[in-house]
Amino acid sequence: MRRLINIIEVLVVAGILGAIIYFYGDKVQIALRVLEQRYLPCQAPIQYSLGDFSPKFGLTQTDFIHAISEAENIWEEPISKDLFEYNDGGALKINFVYDYRQEATDRLKKMGLTINSDKATYDALVIRHDALVTQYNRDKAQYDKAVSLFEQRKKAYEKEVDYWNSKGGAPAAVYDRLNQEKIELDMQAAQLNQTQDKINSLVDDINALVSVINRLVSELNLDVDKYNTVSGQRGEEFQEGIYKIDATGQEIDIYEFDNQTQLVRVLTHEMGHALDLEHSDDPTAIMYRLNQASNEKLSQSDIDSLKAKCGVK
């Protein structure tokens, strides 16, 4: 009888576990992967795949997969161990998300500016920002004055046209003069539209600078006020990449990079987080909190942390 009860208990537990796996299978698998990486790290390669991909970066999917492979090798070679493996259905999704972050970087590149996470870059961007704001204030004041004069001239033209229309028509000489005035007003309106487009482009340049400047203020822990956009709003801060794991899965999102070296480095950094490595206080480390473009390989502190995590002597 006791044996029968034990069998029933086992069947009940098995049924409960089966139901949990059936209804929460994905979440259970994610939880198991997290536990495996934390308590049995480096026992099996982390399988990754390419998730969301935007062609706006100007690179192909093959280019991105090659960059991921480079980042993978940076972690694997020092300990001669397979830590990552590409698989079309890999659980770790690596996404390349094109938004205001990369758009800001692309605008700055077109302006001839190179972005590094250092004080020299911050100082150069501030100088460029201040010069563009001065130019914007001057151009905007001239534009506003020109628009005001245009509106006055247009209003006078429309008033005279209404007057002659109420009289049944204008004399030939007046008619010709009003036609010429209409042509000149149309030309002036087109010029004002071109000027407005240039000012809008200038505003976009300034706001792109603000986004990157404010990011550097946070990264470099500078004791300065953050900048506002031309619209008066504080420029959005941004990260170049982020690793996240939650009930929906594991993901690395890459948002911004200035060149191939920075792309590989930010991938390497976020893949380090996927290995459950934390930030380092070593400025030469891949796992340092800043994306220092000069760091293209693991520092000794990175290697020590990796060996400790993987149990490698």
UniProtKB/TrEMBL annotation:
Kindly give the InterPro entries that the UniProt entry links to this protein.
MetalloPept_cat_dom_sf (IPR024079), Pept_M10_metallopeptidase (IPR001818), Pept_M10A (IPR021190)
Q: What is this protein called?
A: Peptidase M10 metallopeptidase domain-containing protein
The biological process GO terms on file are: proteolysis
- What is one term from the GO cellular component aspect held by the record? extracellular matrix
The answer to whether keyword Coiled coil applies is yes
A Pfam family cross-referenced in the UniProt record is Peptidase_M10
Check the record and name the SUPFAM superfamilies matching this protein: Metalloproteases ('zincins'), catalytic domain
Species annotation: Candidatus Terrybacteria bacterium RIFCSPHIGHO2_01_FULL_43_35
Q: Name one GO molecular function term.
A: metalloendopeptidase activity
